[in-house]
Amino acid sequence: MKTVEEEIPLSVVVTVFRPSRGLANLTNWLNSKSSSRLEIILVHDTSDEETLSLKLERNSPSDEFVFVEGDYGSPGASRNAGLEKATREWITFWDFDDLPNLEAVMEFMGKLLQGDYQAGIGSFQIVSKNTGKTLSKKIFPSEIVSESLNLSLVNPGIWRWIIRRTVIGETRFRKYQIGEDQFFLAEIGAYNCKVAITQSVTYSYFIGDSSQQTAKLENFRKINALISDFISLRHQATGVNQLYIGIAILILTKKSLKINRSFANFNSIFKLVLSSKMNLTKVLVSVWKMRRVLQASVLQYPSINETKRIDFFGGLGNQLFQLALALTLNRAYPVTLINPSQSIIELVARIEKMPIYKTRCHNHLEIAQSKTIREDKIRNLFTRVSGFGNSKLGMALKSHISFFEFCLGTIVHKSNRWLCARDLGYDQSLIPRLIGRRSRVVGYMQTYVWAESLREIFVKSIQEFVQLNSELRKLSLQAEKDKPIFVQCRMGDYRNNTKIGLVSDLFFSQAIAHLSKSYDNRKVWLFSDEPDNALSRLSHVLGQNVTVIKNNFSDLETLALSTFGDVFIISNSTFGWWGAFLSGSKVVIAPKPWFRKIVEPNKLVPQSWIRINHNS
User: Fold this and answer.
1) pLDDT single digits (tens) 517-529
2) How many angstroms separate the CA atoms of 196 and 200, rounded?
3) Cis check: omega of the bond before 601, within 30 degrees of 0
């Protein structure tokens, strides 16, 4: 018998229809040790006129599952039968011919139980039943709900959801042959719940079986009633759930029109238009307004024709931001890095060897150089535009940049769609704009949004450089022991750049004063692109107990050492930003504003960091 300590409060309803299609995936996870911690309800729909016979291993962990049989006639009715038997606080619905990742599910349940969540949505992958090959990985680009929740609207899949019983209440699945899971999510208001998401692949969805419900054309011919019910439900819906229903209506209507047109079923088309209670103008307006949401998913089928190309420019600090975007996109698409520095190439070679990278990303990152001077000129133009900020000129250029992108993509480079970031930092329109064809992206990308989920990958790969240098190893051990204050002072070209500007001495003085209350006896380690000049400038501020980190190391080696810091004072430098960010330090002091005369990149500085004014 299972002990209370072993159990996870999750009931799994597994529907079985035509088991002759193969039970390998089902027996695979039922035989795993982790399955014993779940309540498993196996529901066989006997309308298939087949007998279900499971051959589990002796003493299988799942030998206590609940088995239900009945002539249900639809996936929804089968799930309802299992729902009646479920007794635990959380419920999920799986198909017998798919393959859940139990370890990822267990880990995700831990997150759901720690927070006050009502539902959870996992990332998933699509696998060919015939070849066993992964066709695509549909992974959230971020675990920030506000940034990623809308990306599940087009691919709601009930099997990727874990739902608290109180959310479901007395609601039950309708007896549709297809789309019953979408309607169920709409009826329980799933998208208005407090939802957690995970980038881990919790489920493998298998396609290519001609006997699947979604593969039967006759089921799609019967969706007009479902569309009509969705339209009625939308009048009562609110919030994100209303948007989800609207998208479902558009997708189902498109499928219905396509199928009925193929069979010249004009009577069905006429009924559909009448039942929608919307005139043609409103339909077109709705489609136009929702076009971005329908496209806004990194989770679509990747193909070689949708290779994403990211231009690299600037120093190591800036190129790491561009690499963060590239790795994010690589979870779903082939990605090519254009003109990366040698440091980035070395880092990518290490990242690609990491097991955690191989499980999250799509395939090998390609390295390439610009082929023509014209490409470099276009990149330089877009770089200047994205850096204009929110001045009148900048806003005017950005408002017309779509026109330039269109011209460059269709006239100059037909094989690539050139895209310019609308902000130095996070551009929320970027992902929706690059879906649909091969894209080439130009921008600074200075934001923590793409980097947050990659922190572990970056830290592990960058810290490998410490192990290759005995002097660095010695310094890293000293840093872990003494926990000095890491001060990063950017000099160089910032002296003559009035728009960016050097951080004032007063900033460093106020930062040291702020830390003196709790870290008075700490040593100070000074990092700078001009170490001697920085020390001469700040010696009166930093005191006598200062260790200057000389420029005896490469940029990557210096950054690797920075990750061992405990407390940080950084100037307005992306290199300093990465050191503080990758260290995971809870005490980071950064200048405010980041630049003197340029608008601060959107979502660059984490809210937990301390800001001190330096415009004085």
Assistant:
1) 888 788 999 999 9
2) 12
3) no
Q: What is the pLDDT of residue 323?
A: 96
**Strand order of the sheet with strand 546-548?**
546-548, 524-528, 485-489, 567-570, 587-592, 610-613
pLDDT above 80: residue 64: no
Quick check: 81 pLDDT over 90?
yes
Answer positive or negative: Cα dihedral of 240, 246, 250, 251. positive
What are the two backbone dihedrals, phi and then psi, of residue 114, each rounded to the nearest 5 degrees?
A: -75, -30
Structural domain that includes position 523: 468-613
**DSSP one-letter code for 427:** -
Domain match, 119 and 195 both: yes
Residue 264 pLDDT grade (very low, low, confident, very high; cuts 50, 70, 90): very low
Q: Give pLDDT tens digits for 407-416.
A: 555 545 555 6
Report how far Cα 556 is from the mean position of its chain's Cα atoms. 26
User: Does one domain contain both 98 and 232?
Assistant: yes
| Residues 531 and 596 occupy one common structural domain | yes
Element (H, E) at 80: helix 75-85
Cα 382 to chain centroid distance, Å, stands at 25
- Does the pLDDT at position 122 exceed 90? yes
pLDDT at 296 over 50: no
Q: How far is CA 165 from the centre of its chain?
A: 27
* 97 lies in the same domain as 211: yes
Do the beta carbons of residue 293 and residue 247 sit within 8 Å?
yes
Q: Express the helix, strand and coil content of the chain in percent, nearest 5 each.
A: 45, 15, 35
Same domain, yes or no, for 72 and 133?
Answer: yes
Burial class (CB in 10 A: 0-12, 13-18, 19+), 404: middle
Say if residue 230 is in the same domain as residue 213: yes
**Percent above pLDDT 70 for the chain:** 78
Report the percent of the chain where pLDDT is more than 90.
37
Last residue within a domain, chosen from 385, 419, 452:
452
Element (H, E) at 69: strand 66-70
- The C-alpha atoms of residue 541 and residue 505 are separated, in whole angstroms, by 8
**Count of C-beta atoms within a 10 Å radius of residue 238:** 9
d(CA 308, CA 434): 8
